[in-house]
Amino acid sequence: MTAPDLTRRHLGRGLFAHPLGVNCGASGLSQGTESETDDGRFLDGLRRAVELGANLLDTADSYGAGRAERMLGRLLRGYPNNDFLVSSKVGRIRGSAPHAYAGRHREPGSQ
Description:
- Helix content is 25%, strand content 14%.
- The chain has helices at residues 39-51, 67-77, 103-106, and strands spanning 9-12, 15-17, 22-23, 56-58, 85-87.
- The chain contains three helices and five strands.
- The protein has a domain at 20-89.
């Protein structure tokens, strides 16, 4: 059995990503049988993933009502000169606001 190739992949235009992304959704769990993750433990896990080469971090505004994004911000502040790639998504509509994911609402988070 050979070891998997975990070198960063070229995504184009100078972007390179580790082949395994890190899902930041666990920081926002607090419903049903799932328990909310302790902030310190979650950040320790993210830091360990970064130590092992991870640079693709995935989040969403619906993960813990923004908690995952705040935790990710705490992590990124600790690495001012980084090459992280942050992916996100929209589409899980909550509440009664019409067109919550209309273009003008998405733009601030995509900068």
